[in-house]
Amino acid sequence: MDQSHSQSDQFLLQAIQSGQEKAFDYLFRKYYKALCAQANLYLHDLDLAQGLVQECFIKFWENRKNATEISHLTAYLSFMVRNRCVDHSRKNKKELVTESVAEDAGLSDDADAMILSHEFEEKLVQALALLPDRCRLAFEYSRFEGLTYSEIAAKMEISVKAVEALLSRSLKILRVELKEYLPLLVVLFRITH
After folding, report:
1. Distance in angstroms (rounded) separating the CA atoms of residues 170 and 21
2. For helices 110-130 and 97-104, what crossing angle results, to 10°?
3. Taking Cα atoms as reference points, which of 127, 120, 129, 90 lies closest to residue 183?
């Protein structure tokens, strides 16, 4: 993560610490969908994933007095969501989805697969946060909500060609940012070389 991104995160965290709801709203809108996708990797239940992510944001807001102590915001949020999902899965004796994702990607050793999957989740949240807003929105509509290009075009009030361009740009950035995780990208988002 570059220095300017880190500084903007610190500025955002300072605003949240002082109780500025607009800063928190911005944080929520920036990371919510990517964190829901991460949670859904564990839970196989989008509604439950969304609920747990919302709980994490509520907890984050309640503990905002400590916000400036966070050095890596995306990693912090990713760990927060992952821990909440793991706790929920343990309590409900559900199997973690990361194992099946790792199997689908051809990974054999469970310990290695879990480590790789956790690293991937954090990198995915960071990479999605790096996308320009409109690219991220188009990508989330396509890959997380399953909308067609024409549905995305209608929702974003742009042409289908513009949607194609936004998704192409998103995929290009994600391929670069997540190149070491290409097998997982292929399984999860149909991203190819």
Report:
1. 29
2. 90
3. 120
Q: 2-35: per-residue pLDDT in tens?
A: 455 567 888 889 999 999 999 999 999 999 998 9
Residues 149 and 121 in one domain: no
Q: How far is CA 166 from the centre of its chain?
A: 18
Is residue 193 domain-resident?
Answer: no
Cα 11 to Cα 6: distance, rounded to the nearest angstrom: 9
Q: Please check whether residues 65 and 157 belong to one and the same domain.
A: no
- Dihedral, CA of residue 55, residue 81, residue 190 and residue 165, to nearest 10: 70
Whether residues 115 and 170 fall in one domain: no
Q: Is 182 inside a domain boundary?
A: yes
pLDDT, mean of residues 171-189: 71
Query: What secondary structure does DSSP assign to 43-95, as a single string?
Result: HS-HHHHHHHHHHHHHHHHHTGGGGGG-S-HHHHHHHHHHHHHHHHHHHTTPP
Q: Are 123 and 178 in contact (CB under 8 A)?
A: yes
CB 185 within 8 Å of CB 175: yes
> What span, in angstroms and rounded, lies between the C-alpha atoms of 25 and 193?
35
| Domain housing 8 | 1-130
Residues in Cβ contact with 108 at an 8 Å cutoff, skipping those fewer than 6 apart: none
Q: Is 69 domain-assigned?
A: yes
